[in-house]
Recover the amino acids of this structure.
């Protein structure tokens, strides 16, 4: 939802910016220079990594570029000396999907529950915030130790899942609070008035109205989980997730394979963001299409 | 489409949210089948709570609500066969006009073809055919209201409940939609209960006006009765169009009495049948603003009339009449609605001392 709002703001901004250049004060040029510097500082290092990942066999970790090929991408998949990249990638995706589903379902339910006051709601809220602000590394160590003391082996689909949820759930619920403000309780009452059962009200009114917001929560859940490191480090057990694998590679792999991995995971992140935004836009298009039919 | 059984009876209905204060305090009310009833009162007087209790969105703390002679407390809105139109209209924002109107049929499990046919018939009835595929946000306020009305009416309710249905519209549209509501009610032939805080809206629409204050009914009856013969000071002042004067009875003589106050003396008042007055008793009387005539101070009183003297403090031209505000009879604002031609014959202006004259029999004694 935030992305959508930003998009509308920026189109509005563009319209306003289109004016005579002689109107501009010196502050415009100072801020423009500062912004350009910011963009270079933000994207420069990332771009170098993407470019360097396309070197051939002779490639090294620094410029200049040596050749051009997809050699290091192949190296990644082949699981030779680079480590278990494809395995950790699969685990990360499965984990992110599980985290997304659980986050969306529970954030939705919590959002519905927090619309009214209930016994202990403040306590639940602060516990949630607590888990959000607690240092992830410490929280991860705590969960790892807890599993150890209970004699349960840590694993990416048990302890790491829980550790990641301690981060994505509060986040999702906070987003849900903002999303819930779109929901007018008159709609639910009207649905009841028209004979809808509670389940029908949720299925036919509440969920469709909140759909863009729920997609936003899903997007948060997925991306937060997909690149989660601190909480996962001590809870993933024997098999690494992708961020852990990358981290261990920085310690012992000194080839552009590391860069290739960076490129691949960035592409995947963008794909996921693209799919989410695309589905939000699709929802809006479908609504707009109705208008065109009638005109 | 008269369905009968749309008569409503509230017996000792009370609603309290905290067990101490009462939003609705012991209401007894009978609304006949097919009536257009307006619940009128300031915000917080309990009128919306009564509506929501009849609709089944809230339960009374005590008392019975009967629709068609059957106690409906605890039943769902559908079982009561009531339908409610919300102040915000509560149109589902993601559904087209057709899908909004067909919603009640959809949750009842009608097939798509069947419910669309019925919805389209209803859409035609409210003149929205060309908008059937639009979303609510693409409609004007008046069109949204018609969608809300159609959506409520498609369930074939025996009672339609309207919560401040006109308050979201601008003045011009409000008067137009007011006529449309009245037409819809005649077409459907069912009981309408309409909550409003606008006096003119209530008396223009209603067969029966219920004036409420602080959870209690202050007066209920036909619009003309409530307007012309208010029972008490509250109703007279809330409905408006009346000057209320307080004083003490000072002299009783057969069919007439005299009343006096701090800043005036000798207002003659009629002795209504069945009302006993005693010497020295405190009394409020109401005189309609349009029953008052103004002449310059020192003029003659016609037979059978009485007057108070005061200074004009303000004049508002209203087209068909002129609203003249005076300081008289100890009231902050004593108002006369003088017919336009008559006002300009007298050529009165602010600061002039005048006599406000009315027929003694036109004064109305309040409880």
């Amino acid at each position: 939802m935030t992305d959508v709002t930003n998009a509308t703001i920026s189109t509005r901004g563009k319209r306003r910016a289109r004016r005579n250049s002689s109107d501009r004060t010196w502050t415009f040029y100072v801020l423009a220079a500062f912004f350009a510097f910011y963009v270079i500082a933000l994207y420069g290092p990332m771009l170098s990594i993407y470019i360097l990942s396309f070197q051939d066999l002779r490639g090294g970790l620094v410029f200049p570029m040596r050749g051009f090929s997809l050699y290091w991408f192949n190296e990644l998949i082949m699981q030779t000396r680079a480590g278990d990249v494809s395995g950790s990638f699969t685990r990360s995706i499965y984990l992110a999907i599980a985290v997304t589903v659980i986050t969306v379902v529970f954030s939705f339910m919590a959002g519905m529950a927090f619309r009214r006051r209930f016994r202990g709601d403040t306590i639940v809220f602060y516990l949630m915030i607590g888990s959000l602000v607690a240092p992830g590394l410490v929280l991860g160590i705590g969960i790892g130790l807890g599993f150890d003391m209970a004699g349960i082996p840590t694993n990416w689909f048990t302890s790491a899942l829980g550790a990641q949820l301690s981060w994505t759930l509060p986040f999702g619920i906070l987003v849900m609070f903002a999303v819930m403000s779109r929901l007018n309780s008159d709609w639910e009452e009207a649905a009841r008035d028209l004979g809808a059962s509670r389940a029908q009200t949720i299925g036919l009114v509440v969920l469709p109205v909140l759909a863009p917001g729920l997609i936003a929560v899903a997007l948060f859940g997925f991306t937060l989980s997909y690149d989660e490191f601190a909480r996962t480090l001590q809870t993933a057990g024997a098999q690494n997730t992708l961020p852990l694998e990358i981290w261990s590679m920085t310690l012992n792999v000194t080839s552009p394979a590391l860069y290739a991995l960076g490129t691949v995971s960035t592409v995947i992140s963008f794909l996921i963001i693209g799919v989410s935004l695309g589905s939000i836009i699709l929802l809006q298009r479908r609504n707009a299409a109705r208008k065109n039919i009638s005109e | 489409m008269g369905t009968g059984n749309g008569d409503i009876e509230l017996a000792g209905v009370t609603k309290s949210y905290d067990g101490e204060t009462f939003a609705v305090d012991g209401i007894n009310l009978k609304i006949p089948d097919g009536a257009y009833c307006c619940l009128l009162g300031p915000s917080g007087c309990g009128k919306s709570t009564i509506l929501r209790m009849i609709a089944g969105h809230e339960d009374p703390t005590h008392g019975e609500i009967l629709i068609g002679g059957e106690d409906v407390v605890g039943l769902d809105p559908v079982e009561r066969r009531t339908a409610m139109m919300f102040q915000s209209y509560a149109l589902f924002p993601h559904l087209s006009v057709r899908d909004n109107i067909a919603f009640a049929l959809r949750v009842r499990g009608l097939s798509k073809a069947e419910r669309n046919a019925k919805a389209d018939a209803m859409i035609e009835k409210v003149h929205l055919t060309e908008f059937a595929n639009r979303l609510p946000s693409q409609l004007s306020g008046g069109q949204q209201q018609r969608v809300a009305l159609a959506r409520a009416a498609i369930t074939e309710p025996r009672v339609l409940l309207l919560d401040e249905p006109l308050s979201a519209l601008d003045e011009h549209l409000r008067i137009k939609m007011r006529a449309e509501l009245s037409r819809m009610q005649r077409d459907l032939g069912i009981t309408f209960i309409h909550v409003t805080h606008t006096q003119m809206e209530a008396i223009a629409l209603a067969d029966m006006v219920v004036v409420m204050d602080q959870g209690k009914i202050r007066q209920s009856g036909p619009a003309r009765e409530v307007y012309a013969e208010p029972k008490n000071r509250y109703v007279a002042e809330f409905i408006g169009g009346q000057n209320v004067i307080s004083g003490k009875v000072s002299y009783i003589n057969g069919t007439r009495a005299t009343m006096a106050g701090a800043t005036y003396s000798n207002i003659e008042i009629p002795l209504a049948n069945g009302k006993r007055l005693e010497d020295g008793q405190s009394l409020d009387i109401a005189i309609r603003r349009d029953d008052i005539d103004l002449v310059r101070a020192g003029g003659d009183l016609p037979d059978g009339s009485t007057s108070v003297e005061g200074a004009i403090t303000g004049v508002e031209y209203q087209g068909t009449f002129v609203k003249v505000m005076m300081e008289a009879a100890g009231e902050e604002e004593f108002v006369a609605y003088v017919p336009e031609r008559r006002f300009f014959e007298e050529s009165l202006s602010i600061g002039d001392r005048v006599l406000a004259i009315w027929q003694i029999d036109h004064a109305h004694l309040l409880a």
Observations:
- Chain A touches chain B at residues 184, 186-187, 189-197, 200, 204-205, 208-209, 287, 290-291, 293-294 (CB under 8 Å).
- Residues 33 and 90 of chain A are 42 Å apart (CA to CA).
